From TrEMBL:
Record carries keyword Membrane: yes
Locations listed in the record: Cell membrane
Lineage: Bacteria, Bacillati, Actinomycetota, Actinomycetes, Kitasatosporales
UniProt GO molecular function: phosphorelay sensor kinase activity
Name assigned to this protein: histidine kinase
Catalytic activity: ATP + protein L-histidine = ADP + protein N-phospho-L-histidine
Pfam family, one: HisKA
């Protein structure tokens, strides 16, 4: 639309300017031609009739000269005034001849050249011509002023009609010019905007992940160069993304393979450390301390391997939901009891069978255990576990609140990232560094959300929202 308006404005300005210039030149030409014709005819008639005038002239002679000059024009539109000193006579006895201005009289008095002036009289314009009658001086070859002045007034109705027709012609030409400009603008816009729209669609397609999108390159103008550059950029991006995806896939496969290979020796190590733990009391203190350290580190390593295996399943898309209709409050109580946290964690849970939903019990247990364990490790008691519905019974809300120092503002956006450490100097943690990332993945699989925030009164709060109702057509196992 902006392009069409711009073309229309340019066409309008061009048409108006061209029309104005054409009108001015045509009007000047018409008036100049009419003026030259009138002056030439006036000189001819005066040169022919003036010699017959008695000198010094009297009023009847002046009137006769005025009448003869006016009658010489066949159309009868001339009005003539002849002046000599204080005498004046007109071709029409009752004509006041008001067109002759003092300025025109002074110009005729001061010059022997023919003088003219256009004067507006009422609804039309008249051409007023003034000239002095001269006689050739005997033996000198020079013209001498006779004192007789002839003034002619010619209405320019014909010329005005010509000018009006020019205006009408210009106005009629402007409308087709504007229409042609709009048509050209539409054609230009179509030619210019088609590749731009194609580029926009291609860019949107790239943004949606279809990196094999390419543009057809036609011509050799700037738009063709832009399309060619886009294709080169898209090809380079596709190659880079493919390389990155390959590297990521190899890294995930490596983590999964390593985790899988570690499970067997870890199982043997765990069995040995269990036996050593039973006999630790009969060992000397240094050996007992070393045995307990090995046992603790083996447990941590086993937990890390399990978490890596779980993350690998998420990355490979192999994680599966096994949905079951359960009482969420009872599930949360079981999670705390299984880990001996009942006395360490305060609860605010609804009565039995108040909040029920179709969830994966094992994954819900992992979510709650990771959040509560995180609060116990990094927060401070009291820790509160809360469960309630959202009022519509369509979603369940689980909150874990602690009374610790809270989460720094620069850490909040990263708390669910894998292996993220808020303190770069802290190289070892009790957890694997994957607990919150696994929590976020499990919640996402349920179609829910999880978020972290600081409490106004101090401490951190983790909030999980889970949908309770699912379509009856949902399968029991959902990837």
């Amino acid at each position: 639309m902006r392009l069409v308006i711009a073309f229309a404005l340019v066409a309008a300005v061009t048409a108006a300017t061209t029309g104005a210039l054409t009108f001015r030149e045509a009007r000047t030409g018409v008036l100049q031609q009419s003026q030259d014709t009138v002056i030439k005819l006036l000189r001819t008639h005066v040169d022919r009739l003036a010699p017959d005038l008695a000198f010094p002239p009297r009023e009847p002679g002046l009137r006769q000269l005025a009448t003869d000059v006016a009658a010489a024009e066949p159309a009868g539109t001339w009005r003539v005034l002849v002046v000599y000193g204080g005498l004046r006579a007109t071709s029409d006895p009752d004509d006041p001849f008001e067109e002759v201005t003092p300025a025109l009289r002074r110009a005729v008095d001061s010059s022997r050249a023919t003088v003219f002036q256009r004067v507006s009289t009422g609804e039309h314009t008249s051409l007023v011509v003034g000239m002095s009658v001269t006689f050739a001086a005997t033996g000198t070859g020079f013209a001498a002023a006779s004192g007789i002045q002839v003034f002619l007034s010619v209405p320019q109705r014909t010329e005005a009609a010509y000018v009006d027709e020019l205006v009408t012609a210009v106005e009629r030409a402007t409308v087709p010019a504007l229409g042609l400009a709009v048509l050209l603008a539409l054609l230009a816009a179509r030619g210019v905007l088609r590749p731009v729209r194609a580029l926009r669609r291609a860019t949107r397609s790239i943004a949606e992940g279809r990196l094999d999108t390419r543009l057809a390159v036609d011509g050799s103008d700037e738009l063709a160069d832009l399309s060619h550059t886009f294709n080169e950029t898209a090809a380079a991006l596709e190659e880079s993304v493919a390389e990155l995806r390959g590297m990521e896939a190899r890294a995930r496969r490596f983590a999964a393979d390593v985790s899988h290979e570690l499970r067997t020796p870890l199982a043997a190590m765990s069995a040995v450390t269990d036996v050593l733990d039973e006999d630790a009391d009969r060992l000397d203190p240094d050996t007992a301390t070393a045995v307990r350290l090995i046992s603790e580190e083996t447990v941590k390593l086993a937990r890390l391997v399990d978490d890596l295996m779980e993350i690998s399943r998420f990355d490979a898309g192999a994680a599966v939901l096994h949905l079951d209709e359960i009482d969420l409050a009872e599930s949360l109580r079981s999670t705390l009891a299984a880990r001996a946290w009942t006395d360490r964690v305060d609860t605010d849970l609804p009565p039995p069978d108040t909040v029920r939903g179709r969830v994966d019990p094992r994954r819900l247990d992992v979510v709650v255990a990771n959040l509560v364990g995180n609060a116990l490790r990094h927060g401070a008691r009291p820790v509160l576990l809360r469960l309630y519905g959202d009022g519509t019974q369509d979603r369940a809300v689980i909150e874990v609140l602690d009374s610790g120092p809270g989460i720094p503002a620069d850490v909040l956006p990263h708390v669910f990232e894998r292996f993220y450490k808020s303190d770069a100097a802290r190289t070892r943690t009790e957890g694997s560094g994957l607990g919150l990332a696994i929590t976020a993945e499990n919640v996402r699989m349920h179609g829910g959300t999880v978020r972290a925030a600081d409490r106004p009164e101090g401490g951190a709060v983790f909030t999980v929202e889970l949908p309770l109702r699912r379509d009856e057509s949902d399968p029991e196992s959902v990837r």
